Amino acid sequence: MLREMRFGPALLMSAILLAQAGSTLQYTRDSKMILPKDYRQWVFLSSGLGMGYTPGAQDAANPQFDNVFVDPASYQAFLKTGTWPDKTVLMLEFRGSDNHASITTTGRSQTAVTDIEAHVKDSSHGGWAFYSFGKAGQEGTLFPKTRDCYSCHEQNGAVDSTFVQYYPTLADVAKAQGTFKSTGH
Asked: Which of 114, 117, 137 minimizes the C-alpha distance to 128?
């Protein structure tokens, strides 16, 4: 009994810290999202080049790459169900591009990070939401619900409010599961 009382709280605190350390989705006390340190080790879904959603959104002479990563647990759940579970985190990393890197004479390669964003499904924070981390921020600020990205994703997302139509392997899964919504594109 003495041993339980003496070591019980310490063991409990260790378990809590381990659970937090393994958790993908974390927030600060003021509801900013904490940047997952290992997101580049997550499942890589896709990369786009020069993708813009409004006319003039991208510089055609110097287009950006966007790389999309998803936490492994959500990816595994999607493969089974064709939908995203609660606590899904999709990380979007924007990078510049260069057409004169090293020995290449054609094509473009990725350069430095220009922005990092997250698309998060968290019922305890109101459902799907977007966070901006800037170029190297450790805390993401919630996009206001009035931003066009919310309505655009709701109208054009192939699964939930996500652009699965741009992730070929997951589009096939969603179609097979009957969760894929045709967006007309």
From this structure: 117
C-alpha 3 chain-centroid distance: 44
Say whether pTM exceeds 0.90. Answer: no
Q: Residue 166 has what DSSP assignment? A: G
Give the separation between CA 165 and CA 48, rounded to whole angstroms.
12
**Mean pLDDT for each 10-residue chunk of the chain (185 residues)?**
41 34 80 96 95 72 92 98 98 92 85 96 96 94 92 94 95 97 75
What ranges do the domains of the chain cover? 26-177
The C-alpha atoms of residue 57 and residue 48 are separated, in whole angstroms, by 14
Asked whether the beta carbons of 100 and 121 are under 8 A apart, the reply is no
> CATH number for the 26-177 domain, one of 3.10.180.10, 3.40.920.10, 3.40.50.620, 3.50.70.20?
3.50.70.20
Distance CA 140, CA 27 (A): 9
